[in-house]
Write a structure and sequence with these properties.
The chain is an all-beta fold and 649 residues long. The chain folds into 3 domains: 232 residues, Galactose-binding domain-like (Jelly Rolls, Sandwich); 154 residues, Immunoglobulin-like (Sandwich), CATH 2.60.40; 217 residues, Jelly Rolls.
């Protein structure tokens, strides 16, 4: 059994919610129950509608049958930043057998007698005040179960029940269970949800030992589509909503309910919805030649069946700059084909009420794309809104992981029609990269990325020195990097990951401004490779050239020549020292395997160019710069650094 560590976000809050009748504060009532306020807040879109809450489960050691998460595998919030899970076992366990009494098999956690009563269950009840002009209550739900597929049609029929009690509309329920649930997803589709349990045998009749190695001939555990359910209510009335998950038949084999986006609406929402996601089967960054797999789930939450009418029920054009993978289409029902003439996917079929269909196809990314190209894709569902056997309405597929803020379908909402994952294609190694500090926060360290590859990062200030991003004094952008380095608190570091860019350093350059001082001071920059050997060395040194401080203190810039020692990189100013001004410094490897040092002055031009042999290490495998001083001046000289650039080869 493969153990995995999951990063989950558990939001526990103490929040005061005001309504016209009540003030709510979290309160633990007894073992196995508490007010559940944090769970309600994690899924409720309109917090002001909340009157009171109550949570209860069979776990008497901490209410572990519920959890608040920000993500878990394929599960993502459908509104806001969180969702909740209710489970017959330990919610969020990965795999779902992790805390079972029989580790290594499919059996999940149980909190009561293994076969007898009472069964494991968990419930969350919310009392809500329906806002003015609101006539419907909606929520998103998905049901997962390890009972699937072995126990379909048996008494082992775990179920999710959602009950809405409305004084004006009566009691309405949504029930999803192992026997009747629309299980269109199996564990191959549920990566990192805890339910990606692959059976060792192709058709397991009994309890299996758990393995997370994919077996194409059989899979244990499954899930329904993620769908939106609705219930009629009336404005201004007080309603009760109860989410309950329960074991049936025994306490073994855990099931879980995903719940999010509990909201009110003024009118009935669209009955046909479609969610679409994409996975790069090659993993990591999307690169030229990778294979992308698109998954579409079309759900019918209406009161009547969607039939296979004239024309296509679904079309999806293959994204530009990709190529369809022959034979890659699948559908859980109906007929899906690739239309080579139109370069599109079409599907025809029916979707009975309260059911779904899952579609899948694959494409490969063209080899000719450049860095930063975005692949955008969106399908269209055509459906019959009035039951006259004609598809008179359409719906766009939505990527549930994003909200681009654009209302494409004109329904007043922006989170239900987003093109699927605007995927940034990378990665061709760059010829150069630049850090101008514009996106770094003043007072902290600096980092820079190139298409999700972090190639540069600095250490932070220590007491006695300054080594941080600053604003208000810069060469081009709003920020620069300031250094005031003393021996007592150095060294500091600029770290580089050039190899992550697929290239090596050919040149290093930067603009810098130097300040004045009235006493002796120095600043060393040692350029090191991965083995901590010197590639190059620079020294900024303040010297007293007269007897009238502070005007007689001057700054010299030198580099280390392995033959001649410290060699001044002089400016054209008399004496060759640097003024209080902006300078451009460039270090590069030339064609003769020597190092060339060049200095330029702002608005003046070229100052000096000298060449020296390489040091103990070659110019390649650049890893970091070590910054330090050999002195502790009371008045420490300031340097500002900007427009830092690496040339790559």
């Amino acid at each position: 059994m493969k153990n995995k560590l999951k990063n989950t976000s558990l939001i526990m809050g103490l929040v005061i919610i005001l309504s016209s009748l009540y003030i709510i504060t979290p309160e633990q009532t007894s073992a196995g129950s508490y007010d559940g306020l944090d769970l309600a807040q994690a899924i409720l879109q309109n917090q002001s509608s909340l009157i009171r809450t109550d949570y209860w489960d069979r776990d008497r050691d901490g209410c572990r049958q519920s959890i608040i998460l920000s993500s878990m595998g394929t599960m993502m919030p459908t509104d806001g930043s969180t969702f909740i899970l209710l489970s017959t076992g330990i919610a969020g366990a990965d795999p779902v057998t992790t805390d079972g009494l029989h580790p290594g098999d499919e059996r999940g956690t149980w909190f009561k007698n293994r076969y007898g009563q009472p069964r494991d269950q968990a419930s969350l009840t919310l009392t809500l005040q329906v806002p003015k002009n609101m006539h419907y209550l909606y929520y998103d739900a998905q049901f997962f179960s390890a009972e699937y597929p072995e126990y379909v049609g048996t008494r082992y029929n775990d179920k999710l029940t959602v009950t809405v009690e409305s004084p004006s509309q009566g009691t309405t329920q949504y029930v999803c269970d192992v026997n009747s649930g629309d299980f269109i997803l199996d564990s191959h589709d549920l990566i990192d949800t805890g339910f990606d349990i692959f059976a060792q045998s192709g058709n397991p009749p009994n309890v299996d030992w758990v393995t997370t190695n994919p077996n194409p001939t059989g899979a244990d555990a499954g899930a329904t589509a993620l769908i939106t359910r609705g219930h009629p209510v009336s404005p201004n009335e007080e309603i009760t909503v109860t989410f309950k998950i329960r074991d049936e038949g025994d306490n073994l084999f855990d099931s879980t309910a995903f719940i999010d986006n509990l909201m009110f609406a003024g009118f009935a929402k669209t009955d046909i919805t479609a969610r679409k996601t994409v996975t790069d089967l090659n993993g990591g960054d999307v690169e030229c030649g990778d294979t992308l797999e698109y998954s579409i789930t079309i759900s019918n939450s209406g009161d009547y069946d969607q039939f296979d009418n004239d024309g296509d029920e679904f079309t999806d054009f293959i994204p530009e700059n990709t190529t369809f993978v022959p034979g890659s289409t699948t559908a859980t029902s109906g007929l899906i084909i690739y239309d080579s003439n139109g370069d599109k996917i079409t599907w025809n079929g029916q979707i009975p009420t309260e059911s779904s269909v899952a579609l899948l196809f694959r494409v490969t990314v063209d080899m000719s794309l450049i860095n930063g190209y975005e692949i955008s894709n969106q399908g269209t569902i055509f459906w019959d809104s009035d039951g006259d056997s004609e598809n008179d309405e359409f719906e766009l597929t939505d990527d549930p992981t994003i909200d681009d803020g654009i209302d494409l379908d004109g329904d007043g909402e922006t989170n239900d029609d987003d093109p699927t994952n605007l995927i940034v294609v990378s990665f061709e190694p760059p010829l150069s990269v630049t850090e101008d500090f514009s996106d770094d926060s003043p007072g902290g360290n600096a980092t820079e990325e190139f298409f999700n590859h972090t190639w540069f990062e600095t250490s932070e200030s220590l007491e006695g020195s300054v080594f941080e991003v600053v604003s208000g004094y810069q060469y081009t952008t709003s920020n620069a990097f300031k250094t005031q380095v003393r021996m007592s608190s150095s060294p500091f570091y600029w770290d580089y990951s050039v190899s992550d860019l697929g290239r090596d350093m050919e040149s290093w350059e930067i603009w810098f401004a130097c300040g004045s001082t009235s006493e002796a001071a120095d600043l060393y920059l040692d350029f090191k490779n991965n083995n901590d050997n010197d590639i190059a060395r620079l020294k900024f040194e303040y010297k007293n050239e007269g007897e009238e401080p502070p005007v007689d203190w001057v700054l010299e810039l030198s580099f280390w020549d392995p033959t001649n020692g410290w060699t001044k990189l002089a400016s054209t100013h008399p004496g060759g020292y640097l003024l209080n001004n902006w300078y451009h410094l460039k270090i590069e490897k030339n064609e003769t395997a020597e190092i060339t040092y060049s200095l330029y002055r702002h608005l003046v031009g070229h100052q000096c160019t000298l060449t020296a042999p390489e040091l103990s290490a070659a110019f390649e495998n650049f890893a970091y710069i070590e910054w330090y001083s050999t002195q502790n001046p009371d008045v420490c000289p300031m340097f500002f650094w900007d427009q830092h650039k690496l040339g790559l080869v």
